[in-house]
């Protein structure tokens, strides 16, 4: 399937599970396609908002004109006609708002729940200029939101050490860089090796799946988190309710 068709099917909500996998692979491997995808999402959001505002203004103007005509002519047939027209416009506005909310729901849920995980494993002393270790460079890049550099250093660090938190912060860096598939892979690795960051990995893997519209996978991870009762219990419970 060509990329344009995938985009069209994504935005009208008709992607199959297999097509979602293909789309995610393109987003991961093709930077130009990813840029086009993100731009189109922004454009769609702006169009929906403009339509919502425009429809609201038209409805208000119609009601004002209806009142004016009704007052001027006092025609008894106008009242039921204006009521019917108002109902139609209100239904149209409700439909538009509903679809806009559905489309933006995933984005809003992610944005309201995502928070960058802090560096809790490597203390950076700014005055210690003699520390030029790979670990320092990795976490300094992470703390300053230079995720491309952080990923590069962490991958290098992963090859040279067996520190399990390297995968966790790789996942964090991929997630912040909107590379959700790679983020999920790293978090799953943390879960499988039973790392000290296992509970945190459940949460962030769920958010990454949510961003990819993979609600089934997100819900399963959140259920594990709720069952374990060790991290983000309240947030995971509330998010599960919103996804059901």
UniProtKB/TrEMBL annotation:
Keyword presence, Membrane: yes
Any stretches that span the bilayer, and where are they?
Answer: 81-98
Gene3D superfamilies listed in its UniProt record: Tetratricopeptide repeat domain
Task: Tell me which InterPro entries the record gives.
Answer: TPR-like_helical_dom_sf, TPR_rpt
Keyword terms, alphabetized: Membrane, Transmembrane, Transmembrane helix
The UniProt entry, under SUPFAM superfamilies, shows: TPR-like (SSF48452)
Matching PROSITE patterns, A to Z? TPR
Is Transmembrane helix one of the keywords UniProt gives this record? yes
Name of protein = Uncharacterized protein
Which species is the source of this protein?
marine sediment metagenome
């Amino acid at each position: 399937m060509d990329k344009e068709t995938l985009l069209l099917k994504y935005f009208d909500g008709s992607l199959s599970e297999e097509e979602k996998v293909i789309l995610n692979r393109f987003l991961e491997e093709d930077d130009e396609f990813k840029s086009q995808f993100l731009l189109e999402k922004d454009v769609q959001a702006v169009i929906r908002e403009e339509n919502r505002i425009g429809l609201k203004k038209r409805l208000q103007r119609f009601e004002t004109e209806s009142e004016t005509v009704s007052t001027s002519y006092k025609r008894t047939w106008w009242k039921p006609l204006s009521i019917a027209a108002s109902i139609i416009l209100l239904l149209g506005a409700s439909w538009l708002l509903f679809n806009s909310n559905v489309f933006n729901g995933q984005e809003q849920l992610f944005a309201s729940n995502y928070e960058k995980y802090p560096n809790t494993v490597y203390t950076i002393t700014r005055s210690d200029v003699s520390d030029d270790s790979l670990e320092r460079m990795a976490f300094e890049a992470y703390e300053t939101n230079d995720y491309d550099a952080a990923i590069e250093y962490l991958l290098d660090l992963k090859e040279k050490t067996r520190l399990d938190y390297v995968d966790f912060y790789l996942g964090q860096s991929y997630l912040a860089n909107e590379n959700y598939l790679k983020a999920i892979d790293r978090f799953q690795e943390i879960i499988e090796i039973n790392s000290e960051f296992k509970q945190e990995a459940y949460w962030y893997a769920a958010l990454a799946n949510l961003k990819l519209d993979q609600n089934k996978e997100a819900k399963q991870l959140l259920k594990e988190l709720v069952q374990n009762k060790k991290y983000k219990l309240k947030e995971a419970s509330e998010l599960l309710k919103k996804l059901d």
